[in-house]
Structures are given as C-alpha cells and as structure tokens.
User: Fold this.
Amino acid sequence: MYDSHLRKIFGSQTDEFRQSKVLMVGAGGIGCELLKDLLLMNYGEIHILDLDTIDLSNLNRQFLFRQKDIKKSKAMTAQQAVSHFNHASKLVAHHGNIMDTNMFPLSFFTQFDIIFNALDNLEARFFVNKIALFTKIPLIESGTSGLKGQVQPIYPYETECFACIPKEQPKTYPVCTIRSTPSKPIHCITWAKNFLFTQLFGDDVSDQDKLKPQDIESDNKAEIEALLKESNELLDLKVLINEAVPGDRSSVLKIVEKIFKEDIERLLRIETLWKTREKPEPLNCEPAKIERLDEQKLWTVEENLALFIDSTCKIAHRLKQGPVEFDKDDEDTLDFVVSAANLRSYIFHIPMKTKFEIKQIAGNIIPAVATTNAIMAGFSALSSIHLFHATMQEKVSKSKMVYDSNQPTRFVNTSGLAAKNPKCPACSVTRGIIKIDLSKLTIDELRKAVIDRYGYSDDIGIAEGTRLLYDYDFDDNLGTKLDKVCSYGDVLFITDADDELDSLELLVDRGDKLELPELEVPAKTVPEGNKEEEGEEDDLILEADDLIMEGDINGLDGPKRKAEDDTVPVKKRKLAVDEVEVIEL
Amino acid sequence: MNDSDVNSKYDRQMRLWSSSGQTRLVGSRVCVVEANAVACETVKNLVLAGVGQVVLLDSERVSGEDLATNFFVVPEDTGKPRGERAATHLGELNPDSTVLHDKAPFESLLEDRSFWSQFDCVVNCRLDPCVPLIDLLWALGVPLLHAHSIGLYSLVRLYCEERTMVETHSPRADDLRIDAVWPELQEYVDAVDGPSLAEVPYSVLLIKVYQGFMREHGSRPGTKEARRRLAQLGNGDNVEEAIRKAALVTKRSSELSDKLAQLMQEKVDLATASPFWVLVEALRQFYEKHGVLPLSGSLPDMASNTEEYLKLQSIYRAKHEADKEELKGLALQVLAQHKRAEQIAESEIELFVKNCSVLEVHRGSKNVWSSEMLSESNPVLHNTNIYFGFLALNTFHKEHRRHAAPRDQSEVRALAISELCRWETLKSFPEGLELVLDELLRAEGTALHNVCALTGGIASQEVIKILTNQYVSFDNCLTFDGVRGQTGSWKID
Assistant:
C-alpha cells in the first residue's frame, strides 16, 4: 500500500494504525469527511454506523452523496462511495440506531480501539459517552454549528467526559401560553407543530394523550373548560378529515372556521384573560389565489390562509396511504406549520414570519457548511494519533481539545484536556459490566451475589431505568427469573438501603456464568449544600452577554477555560453540535 | 432542479450567508493553481457550496504520491494529466458547479493579465508564494490566497490590497439608546406610568430609571443603583429582565469602538473611492452632527405586552428609517461634491446602517516577510517559525529542483540564516526554528492527507468569505501546526 509517506511522518506508528479497528458513529457532515481522513491514515478496519437516509439538504456538504442517492442509507452509500478509492482499510457499514442494544450489544463495541463520534444529537452523544465509560474505549467527540465547531478527545475516567459539563436544556413553554395566550412567534409555531399538527394528523389520540385538567397549569376554571372543549371538537374534525373525499374542501373549511374563529371567540369570552393583554381578533378574510410563494418573503394573511387550506388538503389525502409526520424537509407538512403559525400570529397581533425563518425554528435547523466540517474532521482524525503513545500520561498530555475562537490570533483555539468533573453525573459513578445468563438467575440470587461481592451491609435496591425491580418494600419479584424483567444491554442501578455505600451501575452482558466486575464501591459522600455565591456586580463593567445580540442559537455553555497560550484568554467555551435535532420546542 | 430544490439543497449554508451570499457564490469564478491534495480539498468545499466555476491549473501527471494523499485521483488515473483527472472527479460532486482544467504551464501565464483578470479569487497551492503572481494579481485587484502543506505543517496567506467588510456578522450590542432618547421615544416613555409600567419592555424601565437618577444627581446611575430602583417597580417579568440587564444604563450610546473611530479617521480620496468609503464619510458627518451612530433599528426580544412591544418597535423602526434617509442624503452630498454621478443602492445603505457599528477594513501587504515577525513579543512566534520554514524550503527547492530531506539539514539551516539576514540584522537564531526545520525536512516535501483536508477547509472558508463578502477573514497569514494541534495567525505588514 501507499504508506511510505505516512511512514516518513509517523514512523513505526503507521503499523499501529494498520492494526487498529475503529468505529465511526454518524456518516453525515463530519462523518463523510472523517471517513476519507481515516481511510488515508490507513486504519485497518473502519466501521461506519448511521441510522439516517440521505436528503437533498445534505448535498451541500456530505460529499460522498449525490442526487441519485437521496433516500438511501447514509452508512451503506458512504461505504460504496469510497470503494473506488485504493485504500487498504476493511470497511463495514451498519444501517441502524446506535442505541439499539439488540443490533449493537456490548460485545459489538468492545471490538474497537477507538470510537469517533460524528453525531447530530445530544441523546446519542450521551449514549456513546456512557458506552465509552463502561468499556473504557477512548472516544473522540466532534461537532459543528455554522462556522463554529469543536473536537474533544475523551479518555474515560482520566479526562473530562461528554457529560462532565452540563448541556443546555431545551426550552419549554407552559400549556396556557401555547394554547390560550401566545405572545411571541415561537409560541404560535410550537402550537402549529406540536399541538395542531399532532391533533389533526397524528396517530389516533388515545385516552392517555387527551388533555386532562391537571395538565393545564392554570387555575382559571373557564380557561380549562374552554381548552378541553376545544380538544374534543378537534377530535371530531379529525374524523371528518379522515372520511373526506379527495378534492372536497368543505371539511378543511370547517377546520378553519373552528380553530381560527370559534376557538378564538370562546377564548374571548373569558374576560379575565384579556385584562392585561390585547384581545385576539377572530380571522375574517378570504383565501388569496396563490401560485408560487417566495419563501424568503413575508406572505399576506390571505396567502397564508390559502396555503393552509391547500396543505391541509394534501396532507389529508396522503393520510389515506399511511401516517404523515412533521418533517422540515416535507414541503406539505412545513407549509401547514408555517401557514397555521402565521394565521395564529395574525389573530394575536404577533408579527408573522417568513417560511425560511419558521423552517429554522420548527425544524431546529443548525446552519452547516462543508468548510467547517472539513476543519473539525481533520482535527478529529489527527487527534487519534495521540492515542498510540505508550503511557496514559503521555496520551492525555499530548491530546488537545479544539474549539472555535473569536481571537484575532487564533483561527481555532486549543487547550489541554481538562480533568474529570468530580460531580459529573456520568463519570463520577462507579460502574462495571456484569456477565450473566439472565434465563438462569433470579432477582434474589443476583441480589445476594451483589451484596456479598461489594460489601453492602444489609440490603440493596435494584432498578432498571425508572423501573424498580426490587427493594425491601417491594419484594414481589424476588423469585422471578431475570430474563422476565430485563434484557442484555440494560443498565441495572444498585442502591444501598442503608445509604452507606455509593450507588453502582451494572451493564448487563451475556455470559455463561455470573461474573461481577472487579471494583470497589466507595462510601457515599454527603452532597454539600448549594453554596452558589452571588458575585457582586461591578458597576462599570458590562456583562458581555448583556451586549451580545447575535448569539449562537444552540450554544451549550461550558465553564470558563483558559486556552493553551497564556496570551489568549478565552471567555467562554461554547460547544457546537452538528445539526442538533433533538431539542424540542 | 427548480428554485425550491436549489433552496433546499443550499438551505443549511444560506442560513449563514443568506440568498444574497449564495447568489454571489453562484456567479463567481475561482482559479486554483496546482492540483495537489490541499488544492483538491479546497476545490471540493467550493464546489459543494455551489461556486459557479473553478479552473484547476496544472501541468503534472498523476503519481503514486498523489494517490496516497489525494482522495480525488484514483489508481486508473496514474500517469494521466492530473488537472484533468482531478477536475473530472471534483466536477461530479455538484452539477451546479463547473470544474475546468488548464494544462498551460504556470510560468507561461505569469504575464498574461487577461487570463488572471477573469477570476474573482485565485488560490495558489504551490510551495512557492511566487512574487510575480502576487504583484500581478495585486495590480489587477484580484484577491490571492497562498496555501500549502508539508508533513504536519501548513500555511495559508491572503494577499489583497484592501477588504472592506459590511456584513461582518460580528456580535453587535443591542442599541437601545437608554441615555440618548429622541423626542418620539421620550413621548412614549413619559406616557407610561402607574399600572402600565408592568406591560412595557424592560428598556423603557431602564430609560425611566436612568432619567430619574440623572434629574436627581446630574450623573448617570451605576448598575447597583439602577437595580435598587428597578426592584421598587414591582415584580413582573419585565422588571426581572430589566434587573438582569441593568448594566445597560452604564453604556454610553455615543461610544465608538476603537476600530470604528480609527476607520472614520482614515484619509481616502473620495473622488475615486468605493461606495463603502463614501458611506463611511457620510457616517463620520452623521456622528459629528448627532454624537451617535444611525440607529440599527432592531429591538431584542423582550418580555412585554405584545401591543406595547410593537409600539416601541415601530418607534425604533421609524427612527432607523429617518437616520437612514439622513445618511443617504449625506452620502449623495459627498458624491455630488466630488462630481460623481453614480448612485448607491438602497439595499446597500440599509446593510451599511444595520452593520455600521461592526464595520471592518483590512489593508493587506505584498510582502512575504516583515521584520517584526520574529520579535520576542510575537504571541504566535512558533507559528511564525513554520511560515519561515516554508520560505527556507522554497529557496532550497528553487536551487536544487528537489525537496529538502534530513540529509540537507545543515544546508537548510544555513539558507534560513542567510534568508533571515536579508530581512533584518539577526541577533540570534529564532528559538524553536531548528525544530521546525527538522520536522519539515523529515517529511521531504510529502503531504499528509489529513492536514491537507484541514488546510483546504480553512482556505476554502476564506475564499467563501471573500466571494460573499461576508464574515471577517483572518488578517493576513496563518499556519497550522499538527504537532501541537494549533493554528496561529498574525499580520504581515
């Protein structure tokens, strides 16, 4: 193979690349770039894993995909696209969800020397982080958002892990704001996407999903009644839609009548709501004749109404073929949300927005471009060379965290890896892998084995996720075989009934006979009271945040951190995430 | 593809530079000299972004080394013209973009003004920065990037006489004018009292507190004092928000950033200067007269009754429109005074007013070297050493027609010293330079794909900033150090 050039630069380390097996999670923006970079580093075996299929809006950066590949599996297509290249690496593609423990049991992960994350959502990132902690496999985490990005090598328990710094939680709005008293465009968009769309086109709304009085955080009785009535009428309309004949607009016009007129009139009758607020005005206009609408321009209320009728008809028609879900790249569903949100905004005297703007908000779109992905993938691949140093101390000290810079002297900032956060919810926990045959052991047998092995003084509690399997008040299951209550890949959470020892996480892995991991469970530390100090504000210094208007839409604030060079202070590190899609409105 | 398909295809990047930026990319032509890995990685990113036309200038043939470092040539291409093969593979990435190649030897084009003047930007990926090319493109006003990589190092350098940037996307402070209220806003603020205080955006509360304190003390309040007074206004969302933003009462609306103050002092010949400078002159006159900049017109999201928010917004909008008209009048006056017949587009004035607090101007230089670079006070000395190492290797390459190898260590060091002495009187060999030279020699001119991809990412990002004229580029030299995993940039005057 052509590795003479690698040999000149990396010497005998080149052979270690050849002998290594790596996993790349995500074959999107960063993934396509990273795969190319890893191939040209001559890694022995590269596994490509992605659950997604290719979309038109990927083509501006995911260079392994073409127009003809749209709707195909990203992982498979990426593998085929690089096959022409004369590489020596063995490639394996997996089309599936990384969090699917049947498809990817623990033994799948333990075959790898390195895991590269090139993911677009926090949930999967946290999951892989946890896998890395259980298996102690080094993880190289990366992400981009617009022209910003970051790369973070993680040595489990040695350096800061992905969960060591709390990530910003998605913002939620009270039900009343969304349903009765919106005051911002975002409230109307949330209403259109999360409420109206689901109510009209979602799978049959079961009793469980029905709005219950206790869900409404309001003590206004009239408001609660109005909202409940509104919901029930909507269910009737849903039936109408399902039964409508194609081309028959009458049921859609009834929906318009109801949600943009009658419901508003009903809200208006609750006078207490409008004491300090401006009253909404029920919609009173005729749809315009529309042909093509420019998505960058603001549409009139008549145009929005026409589009609302049009898109509702189209979706209702499609429902006959199967379920329709909101997708920012599905024009009909997007048109529906845009027009419904704008009509509602109009009624409540809130500024309307362009389709382009609403798409970004409703679809949680993060800007993405090939250049930044190329830069961050380059850093990610290059970070992996430090994993081949002989000692952990050397690995950690040579590795660098990379993040975007706003300093004129640095294009990107780098800093040494931080130590792990002693209060981290992920890596401060004692954990290990338990080998077990679930069909042979009962809960009681497991309980006794754990108590013996780790020296719990009396009794323990066992839970899987939020499901309690056993504690001293709940011993119904003691004689039950474990395979009835949990499966391989689950994590068992062990707590000390006497609160003396710390809790313990055990990942269930298939084994012939019971093997408990070698570990010491430390004594429980009493959490210190929240001693958050309120700093005295300096009168003359403005908080930078007060003055910044154009912010990162999706910035995940980290602690203040110092960059490598003393001369380059960094105020705040923001983590960027490639196309985060999990953050719900 | 129809328009809506084009919009969805480029959707994720148009959120960075909007349709105006995308239109400029589509209409652009870029020339890339040499079809090595850095070049192809740069072109890949330009083609994906939808740059209209790229011309690869290369007269080499595909070699084994190309196959090992460059993803965009395949084994079947071996021995074939490199520019043509790479152009074919890169052209497949995006049907909206045309990738052409030209086999003419680079040297034969060095005096061909008509060849180079067809491009909006040129990227030279050879080791040699090529002074004649720099001179020629400088004279033609075509921006030039020099990008190259050896081993774990790379460099990117921008040669451009002047870059005036309006859409910088730099963070802008909310321009609320707490301390500089105009009559219409004053009228609104005065009308708010009693229970209506609970319904207005926080900025109105800040204005009230500011003005009350000024009346009583004749000086502006501090943050603490403002917070104390705000706390007495009740406990609504808007009061809470006002307390959080109380520091804004200390912000002087008249204050200019150093950069902008300096910019307004620049002497340019207004008879020939670009519309940007005409607008800067108008801005200077505006500021001289009013003591503040024209209002940007956008209000941040604030907790408030919707109606009150909209009222306030329309007051800020109206002021913005009025300021914009005044600035436009001043600009037209400047043009008339200099007997210039041209007009400035309305959209251009709008963008200028919106961004007037974050304008940016870079003045480039043609020098490949400046004497201050190796001074002790240089914060990125190590990165400067890398740049210097590339220059020394280039001198060696020109003399020997081959890449320097470890066995050439003493000669390269001697070359470096004599090179340095041409530029300045050298007291001692710069710290760290020997290590950098050794690292470069170890690679014997070989590139590493990984570093090329990263460098291509940086270079293409700068090209896109130049073509869209959005965002701030680095000014004007950057090196990447793969040993330390670090970039550093500094200005060569």
About this structure: Chain B touches chain A through 90 residues (CB under 8 Å). The longest strand of chain B covers residues 144-150. Residues 183-250 of chain B form one domain. Chain B has four domains: 3-161+448-490, 183-250, 258-363, 371-443.
